Amino acid sequence: MSRLAYTAFVAFVSSLLTLLVVWALMPTPGTDAPPTDDTPLRQITLEELAEHDSRESCWKAIEGRVYDVTDYIPEHPTSERVILRWCGRESTEAWNDKGGGRPHSPSARAELEQYLIGELDDEDS
Ligand code: HEM
Number of folded domains in the chain? Predict the structure, then answer.
């Protein structure tokens, strides 16, 4: 092997090794603080909930959890009136009975979970 080819080969192998070392030392994204379901939710009192009783800011408590559904109001498949009257209130009953005892569907529940902001203060629930 010529001297030039040998030098080029050594340079090539060294750069590969350097890349390998850099890659091995790089922190793996997301491993520092993995999100857990144990993260405590913000405690919200019935008093604070009641302040969000309008189209501009509509919070609902459902089964002990509090949801800010303001952005969902225009998406709800009924007239706004149906959903607006529950803003700022404990709404579990309304959630579980759309009419005639029919609860919301599992996909509605999945939709709801996107709006989770906290849980009802222990003293209130
Ligand atoms: C708490 C007050 C609420 C009341 C009284 C209420 C009531 C209703 C009613 C009357 C319907 C149409 C009836 C039917 O499906 O046959 C409906 C459908 C629906 N609502 Fe609500 N709703 C409320 C809150 C919400 C919230 C907060 C969400 C989601 C963030 C939501 C999501 C949906 C969806 C996706 C449907 C379509 C049917 C289904 O998937 O169950 N609703 N709701």
Answer: 1
